[in-house]
Amino acid sequence: MFQPLPSAGPEPFRRLRSLLRTMSALLAAFVLLAALVACGRDEAAGEAADDPGALTIYTYDAFPQSLEVLITTHFEEAYGVTPTLERHQDTGGLYNQLWLERAAPRADAAIGLDNTYIGRALEAGLFQAYRPGEADAIRDHLVIDPEFRLTPFDWGHVLLNYDSERLPDPPTTWEELLDPRLSESIILMNPATSSPGRNFLLLTVAVHGEDGYLDYWRRLSPNILTITSGWSEGYGLYTQGEAPIVLSYESSPPYHIAFEDTDRYRNLILEDHGYAQIEVAGVLSGAANVENARRLIDFLLSVDFQREIPLNQFMYPVRADVELPEAFNLVETAGTSIFLPVDEVDENFDRWLSDWREVMQ
Amino acid sequence: MSRSLLYAGVVAYFALFFLVPIGGVYVEAMRGVPAAAVLDRARGVLTAPRTMRVVGFTTGQAALSAAIAVAAAMPLAYMVSHYSFPGKRLAYSLSLVPFVLPSIIVVVCMISFYGKSGLLNSILGTDFNLVYNFRGIVLAHVFYNFSLAIRIISTAWRSIDRRFAEAAESLGERPLGLFLRVTLPLLAPAIVSAFVLIFIYCFLSFGIILVFGGVRFSTLEVAIYQETYVNLDLIAAAVYSTLQLVLSVGFLALASRAIVAARVSRSGGERGLPPLATASTAGRIFMTAYAVVAIAFVLGPVLTMFARALTNANGAFSLEGFRQLLIPGAADRNVEGILRSSIPGVIWRSVAIAVSSGTLIFLLAAALALSLRGRSRPGFESFLQMPIAMSFVTVSLGLRFVWGATVPPAVLVVLGQFFIGFPLVFRILRTGVDELGDGLVRSAEILGASRWAVLRDVEVPLLRRTLLNGYAYALALPFADLTVVLAAGRGRIATFPVAIYRLIGFRSFDLALALAVIYVLICLGLFLVIDATSMHAQEPRRDSA
Amino acid sequence: MIRLERLRKAYPEFDMELDLAVEAGELVSVLGPSGSGKTTTLRLIAGFESIDAGRIVINGEDVTRLPPAGRHIGYVFQDYTLFPHMSVAQNVGYGLRIRRVEPARMRRRVDELLELMDLPGYGRRRVDTLSGGERQRVAIARALAVDPVLLLLDEPFSSIDEVLRRDLRREIVRLQRELGITVLFVTHSRQEALSISDRVAVLRQGRLVQYASPVELYRRPADEFVAGFVGEMSVVPHEGRTLILRPEQVSLSPVGPGAGEVLAESSVEATVQSRQFLGFAWLYELDSALGSLLAYDSRRYEPGAELIAVWSAGSELPNE
Fold this sequence. Notes:
Structural class of chain A: alpha/beta
CATH architecture of the largest domain in chain C: 3-Layer(aba) Sandwich
Strand order of the largest sheet of chain C: 6-7-8-3-9-10
Structural class of chain C: alpha+beta
Distance between the termini of chain C: 33 Å
Order of helices and strands of chain A: HHEHEHEHEEEHEHEHEEHHHEHEH
Order of helices and strands of chain C: EEEHEEEHHHEHEHEEHHEEEHEEEEE
Number of strands of chain A: 12
CATH topology of the largest domain in chain C: Rossmann fold
Shape of chain C: elongated
Largest interface: A-B, 87 and 94 residues
Oligomer: heterotrimer
CATH class of the largest domain in chain C: Alpha Beta
Largest sheet of chain A: 12 strands, mixed
CATH class of the largest domain in chain A: Alpha Beta
Helix content of chain A: 40-55%
Number of helices of chain C: 9
Strand content of chain C: 25-35%
């Protein structure tokens, strides 16, 4: 009680300072801990393998690990180098990273851009031309860049799916899709934010013409339950049983056959139409390891790699000479593959989109 | 001196890992484009009718959602702050669960319960379209933020001195007048606080709008995403970002002023609570009924999701999802390949990252709240609140662009996640610390206590509930983060939300639901531990002399 | 006027059992050590807590089951409890507002009360700009505004400095006389209780141990506890009984020639142990064959001095 009072001035400050010093030390310790913890475990191998001299590949997060292993093994066995695969969120994230680094790219090759970004990537000069040895094996209609700055490695059809348990009697024509019995029965994706959504809008433009697509959408809209921003959200609603029809891929039903042993989910093919979504890979302009990057493009087109695409990526191989697994042969497919030229799309898409938006508001 | 050192350190941190990354992206985006063209494009975006529509919708839905969440939370906040009842701790912890759910899971929950084929419709035998419209957005936002409102308001309510009510009653006040004339004004800062936070969260809403917004409803955050990742129009994105930042920081600053003006010292402190059984019969029935409905509202969706995870395609009970997920080799899919990590790895890494980020957030927020006690630095505080208003899509992109080559992914994730939790945690702690007041700390200092001793003997024990509440949020927000991990982690780090996202990307909804259940249970365990500690905090009895 | 009849209330620490009657216009203090149930008594009367058994009757009306709002009493809290979100005038006028008194009349009444409490022109001030004494007076004005039949004051001066406390004490007495209001006043200060009250109720462990005028309390305490609580004292055995001696009842003289004559029945030899200077006299603590003694004396003796202690009167405690 009677001990002398501390001086009111500098004393509290000195204490605060020591408090802060300790806190900063704690902070540093925690950041360090985080680093150790997160890198230290099973990803240590990947971290250690970073070798900038070998090959750096950018892709999106969802690129299957099995295909990554295939690439890594191939490069280690054939060339004794271990490539580094960096994943950048989704396709948009991948494109942004490539574009932001365009002056001094850290990657040598990129896997996974699709229709939506191809035109812009080419215009921005992000990729250099390389015509792979087996370029001729690619199905003709998939070759979207004759100069081979971007080379297709897989593709699929964007079209509607339906749940046969809830809709035993699906429409087969674009007109039947407008039937009032299908009120609030379709889940679509926003063309402004999602690749399938964009491709489906293009499909309607291609099928109904620039003059007719808006009218078609106007009549379709009572049957639309919701338009989600991304495919995952929409497809989630569909598998939750919210609506019997969803915009998805032709390869979605084989997934349910292969892994869930059910064929209740089926392709809803309207007048044989499907819109081609093409995934491409390319060698970056200014890549440090051009040779390995080219080897990558070659490998992506090899039969060894193409064969693995269906069950890992749930897309089709671009080579015509690769057989599809059993599950893929059990489903109906669209016979007419529609694909609007990239430059035509780039030129008009903004207008189509904003007109469409006005109609759907 | 050292106070300014702390401030300078925080400013430097913000500058390096927040301002520079965002600036980096936009500067890079505009490089080589003539200034006139940039300005022209910016003006074009600002004056477009769509921009006005987006701003109007963003503000309107946020205000409505926040108002409903706060109003709906009031009776429960009263109940929680005035009575003890069996299961209170569990319910209190459970109520935080929606807050940490990745938005894709929130959607699954909402759909399972409120959807066209959801539980509610099947119980009622109806086919109501409850969610695919404006209602759905508001419903989901209320579901998301309900617990936040309850926690903020009940904490304040608890600390209102019971004697204010007694003084009013002795002067002839009746319950309704007491509520309107005394309680409500004293609660005003907390209500405004809760409203503002929820408003901001809804203002920045992204995931919910992605699903329920359709084409008609788009928030600024969605517009930023769209311009950044799809249209690749970074100038438009910058305009939207700036607009979003200005609007939300402006709103926060306005509200802070209102909160500071209304803040009053309430010397109530903590006290033991009587059991609910001591309330009047009518009150007990109303509160119980209300609580049951509210719990159904919040937990119904979560429990329905649990039920879905435990049934197979034919609706029969099944642990198949869990079996495939947890037993190596049991799945027909290569689960580890899809996740690019083992399940224990996901759990371990999620917890490690959340603890690292959460502790970083908590320590800095606590240091700042303590050193800002009793001071008003509106400019600095608005600056600190800035991250809440910034699009994390942009922040993550910037972090990876600026620091990706030099900082290891895990560290970058922690550094980036800091900004997700900091603004909220800082607000919680700042309010709590300020209510403690200066007197006790000064008296301890006079007695010769060192700064550490004051912290240990006075601040920590008295602020225990506030501190633990803050820490809970500091852990929860990074735990639920998907954006920063995905973007800044360069695909190397699989936390729970990432793993769920990857499973859904592979159409494996069954496994994703099972994983979401495991995730929810772990979150719940974490919150239970934290809430249990904070509820055991010494509750001194009132002197009955 | 107010009657507490067989009031019972169980607490973890003690059980309260109380009978108490206060006449109209009386100022009664409730005195006791902390934890004796003083504040509780007030809270039960105000209706903040319910009682287990018994009746509370105010002006002939049984208010036991009425809520606080229906009892028409004024309550002043230990720490004032002014509403922080209202101005001084709003605080004072609060009870009138509840009663829907028209604004002009309310303003007049508030001004009148502020005048009465010596706070003219304070109406627009924020409560957090007031000093402790000012807050206390605002709190009293607020309680008085609704013309309560009974004013309950819970240790109203405990956090006010000594000088101000004396002023406020006088003020309370003046108000009570002027307004003729009944006041129940909780305090743990015997000086406060003795100086202003008409009667004092001494509580111990939830029981009323004595209820009497200050003089009677001091002169004829009911037991040793009361005696010790209301003033300094020594306890001396006397003819098989216990005698309470106040220090002023004991006089001291030096041992010297002729001391033997003084050494009568009511005296004893004593040695000074310690002393305290009080201004008007010294308070001595002495050691004697009868035990320890306290005495006032204006003369100065050194510790160790041998003296004769003589007592004139003294109060005997009733046999137990």
